[in-house]
Amino acid sequence: MRASLFFVRVALFWGIPLLLPGCIEPYMPAAISSPQSYLVVDGCINSQGVTTINLSRTYDIVTQTPPPVETKATVAIEQEDGPHYPVNESTTKGTYTSPNLTLNTAKNYRLFIRTGAGQEYASAYVPVKTTPPIDNVAWRATDAGLNIYVNTHDDTKASQYYRWEYEETWEIKPPYSPIVEYKNRQIQDITTFFPATCWGNNQSTAIQISNTTRLTQDVVSDFLICSYPTTSERLRSKYSILIKQHAQTQEEYQYWELLKKNTENIGTLFDPQPAQLTGNVRCLSNETELAMGFVGAHSLEKKRIFISRMDLPQKWLIQSGYESCVPPDTIFLTKPFPPPPPAVTLQSYFGNPNYLPIYPVYDQMGAIIGYTAQSRDCIDCRTRGTALRPSFWQ
Amino acid sequence: MKHLYSWFVFLLFLLASLTSNGQQAEKTISGNFSHVPFEQFASQLEAQTKLRFYFNPAAVDSLFITLQAQDVPVRTALERALQNTPFHFAIDDENRVFVTAGVTLEPSLPDSFFRSEREGNLANNARTTEKAPASAPGRSRYVREAEAKLYEIGSGSVRGGKVTLAGHIRELKSGEPVIGATIYSEAPSVGTSTDQFGYYSLTVPAGRYDLKIRGIGIKNTRRQVILQGDGKLEIEVEEDITPLKEVVIEAEKDKNVSGMQMGLEKLDIKTLRQVPTAFGETDILRVVLTLPGVKSVGEGSTGLNVRGGATDQNLILFNGTTIYNPSHLFGFFSAFNPDILQSVELYKSAIPAKYGGRLSSVLEIKTREGNKKKFSGSGGIGPLTSRITFEGPIIKDKSAFIISARTSYSDWILHRLSNNSFRQSAASFYDISANISHQLNEKNSLYLTGYLSADRFRLASDTTYQYRNQTASLKWQHNFNNKLYSVLTGAYSHYAYDITSEKNPVNASRLKYGIKQTSLQADFSYFPSSKHTVDFGVSSLVYNISPGSLTPNGENSLIAPDILAREQAVESAIYASDRIDFTQRLSLSLGLRYSLFNALGPRDVYQYTPGVSRTETSIMDTVRYGSGKVLATYHGPEYRMSLRYGLTDNSSVKASYNRTRQYIHQLSNTASVSPADIWKLSDANIRPQVGDQYSIGYYHNFRANTIEASVETYYKSLHDFVDYKSGATLILNHHIETDIVNAQGKAYGVEVLVKKLTGKINGWVSYTYSRSLVRVNAGTPADRINGGRYYPSNFDKPHDFTLIGNYRFSRRFSSSLNFTYSTGRPITLPLAKYYIANSLRVYYSDRNAYRVPDYYRADLALNIEGNHKVKKLAHSSWTLGVYNLTGRQNPYSVYFKSENGQIRGYKLSIFGRPIPTLTYNFKF
């Protein structure tokens, strides 16, 4: 329904105005063009393992750059009336990791941050929750496609509020393996073959939360984590998903619930009223300075499954993702007539590093009259993933 | 025609002066005039003396005066000035000079006039003396005779006591009642006005009266009566055919100052027609929006925000039935055909006790009853719509009908667009109104009204959007006697929408919503004496709502049906009010309305953990109520008080206080009204809204009541109106209370209005400073908005300036100019973005912390009337208009879209260029 309502909106605002001399222009009020930059704290305290915290800054909504990271900060996990554990910046700028820790579940913890500029921030002290293990990750193939579910339970009824993140990996097999390459302004036999398999990777972006407060037992049964249509290219040969489960406090859950409502639907005209949402991180040295993010403390449970093409219904017309790449183009050296010198033709096509030759094309006499070719994206699967086989890959 | 007109004017003044005895003030004048135009001569004389000149400017345009005078008496000077010309003059004892061609007016009555014999004692059987000039053309013989006649009414048994005169004022040609006409005597000063049936009742000491009758759209007239006992006087008045200046003007000219009511804006169809609109068609809601204190969020929206109230706080009554969606085509048109309308009244404060159920205002739309004497019709053809009206008698002089229809044909424009998806779209609407009135006998009349408006859109052959209003009402008016009458009204109104989606057979669905309202109401008006006007009555209203259902559409659809349980409730009220005229200067109106609301089962009611934010997780229990069981009761008094004190004849102060209660809430989390908005009844979890308004105003009329000025200020507090939590889901929500918060509001402002409805230049200028603030401070911190502080509402536009001006070049050509300026409305801006959990998030400003750019717009229209022959087959007129003359791109909407990881802001203007329109109107 939401989709159709959205369509009405679109039509209302774009269609009916077209009857009239309406117009749409960019609109950027001054308040947006020069926003203040606030600290963003992304991550949570892992009570049984390595804590990873990403620090960045809010930035101008019109820019397209990656977010500015906050480097050279001093970060620590602080136990209320107890020891501090440093969280040091790793080799990745803005990412801070702790040693492998086991925190006392009877105590409260917080995250303390002193930025390079000297501002001090801290999250609120939160109790430690222990995440129950994932019972299983189930999947089912329906006529509509593949659904992946998670199941968990907590006999102590202490968890109740859950959040999940996931990381997907899948094999990518490009349709071409060129035997020639264009190097030094000429075609030669290829020296290093392009990888035949790559691994695509994706991290969840949607906020997945659920609670069991209305149930008599603390059981999450078949919570839908993600679903794919029958044609999804990720299912073409082999697919894997790693699910991470967080048990949360009620406050943390409400934060994520509101963040989900608040920022996942942006872009429609009839959006709900958005609200200001910051989290539980406060600036200690300057009350007016804001910070974004909610730092909870809990353990993390993970589970990985694999799904092969063979496991899925044969009738599914799974796409390769390379549909637009077939058939290849053919670059004729003999055309147009009279043909320009071959070097000129070759340079004019393959001078562009993102356009690659695949095979020579011969005439009936066996003479090379051209080459098949495609864009790099159709040939080199590293444009879509990594050629490094993940350590967990089976 | 011009002569006719000038004669009308002469006659008016002549009649107004009939009662006085001729005595001229012997003023002297000085001056040298050499071939000066007569108009200039007259104005110089007016400057030197207290004289007022009355003449037909067209008749004297070739009259030039050459005169040298030094302390010459006026009479002598005028004699000298006009000698050897065909012009004559006459001066009455109020220093009015009438200049006429050919005929000399006699401004005073012959002495014998008042020596009327006391003979017949039946009404309408009095001896009369003809005094109207035999040559006065244009006025019907009936009216001339009636005005000159002396009516003796009553048997004379109550000599010296109080008597009551009652009757109807009707239009002579069509027999339609004249609503809101005043009938009054100047000495002693008593008066009243007609109600919606044209009925009046006047209680005065027995004696002789010169009753004057004034009203919108009628020619002023008078009746002379000798009241000796209770009696009836039916008055027929002439319609004001051509929109000429003096006529409209005289109507209720001092009501601004002398009327009891404050915060009332009354528009008649003629005023409505003068205001240029985007589509060339008279649009009542657009005109209402130009009035001080009335705002909307955007120019394509007809949602009214009256004095800081929300769009659902207006009771829109169409002949007594409630209209839930008063707009067509997403708000670009209002859903009322202008041809059938008689008048529109908007009560912004001092809402009469008779009305209830909404917090901020009452917009009462009345239709005409139809011509009781002959068949006639009218219509109009515009670029997007056409309309037609027929009316006529069913039984001559007793019953009449009027039926009016309007339809759009915007499809052809859509089909011309190059974009394929628009070519597959369709947009259409129509509305039909019909009214039948029947007079059973002298004491009983029946009025039947039906109304249907429907909209249908198909957008890119995917989603079809339909909504409709259907209403009907039956009124029975019964006169018990001259002092007491009643109106029994049964009304039904139904609003429903239906959205069907067909793009994908699997997802094809149908979303429906409907509200039905059935009411029965008895209103009584009692006129015990000239000092008291008592109104009382009872009403009961049954709501039946289908709050939403989503069902599969077609065999292949996999949509799971989702149907919300019905809601039922009964809203009842009892009221009484008394208007007391203590003295000529001081009057007070006291009213009390007591309303009672019962939400009824069958229904499952969720109970929530107290002290915690209401969410699905805080539901403690579900209580099932059986059919007809009361699940929640709310009731309370609604006070209605107003006071008027006349400072001078030309100025007065009025004050009012009223409390209103509202038990039904519109849920819309869009800034403007959309057809998918739903109405929700109060129930165990949603309290009714309560509003209090205090207002005080100063009213002053200048230049013999031709210029009205007023300053009104108000303070309003609103309790428990609905606001939404962040990310509220309103459609198909089984526990809507979890997404709603009770908000408190306050609104205050000053409205300044200067209105001139006479002369070649007329119109009004208004300026409003107002604020409308909301606070959500209840509940848990998570539910609070902006930290529980006051924030501007969506329609908080502090400065608002409107000019509606008309200039009449001649009786056939007139032009109108609109100018509107207002502060831009508040919006919530995304201020910055950031990444959390691998995804882009947006940091928003405080709710409504910023504003869109200011709004201003100018429109121009030119009306060209056909010739003014009274008797011809069809009267026609052309309206040529340009909407948004300067082409300013006023933002209709400001929105943000996420595009390729960037969030971009856009400003959409709908009427971003000047829009010319041409409309042809006809009447036969």
From TrEMBL, chain A:
Pfam family, one: DUF4249
Protein known as: DUF4249 domain-containing protein
From TrEMBL, chain B:
Residue ranges annotated for the TonB-dependent receptor plug domain, each copy included: 279-358
Keywords recorded for this protein, A-Z: Cell outer membrane, Membrane, Receptor, Signal, TonB box, Transmembrane, Transmembrane beta strand, Transport
Subcellular location: Cell outer membrane
Recorded family membership: Belongs to the TonB-dependent receptor family.
Lineage: Bacteria, Pseudomonadati, Bacteroidota, Cytophagia, Cytophagales
Membrane topology: Multi-pass membrane protein
Residues passing through the membrane, by range: none
Broad class of the protein's primary localization: membrane
Domain TonB-dependent receptor-like beta-barrel, residue spans: 434-885
Listed name of the protein: TonB-dependent receptor
Keyword field contains Signal: yes
SUPFAM superfamilies referenced in this protein's UniProt entry, alphabetically: Carboxypeptidase regulatory domain-like, Porins
Top-level taxon of the source organism: Bacteria
One Pfam family this sequence matches: CarbopepD_reg_2
Residues making up the signal peptide according to the UniProt record: 1-22
Region (Disordered): 120-139
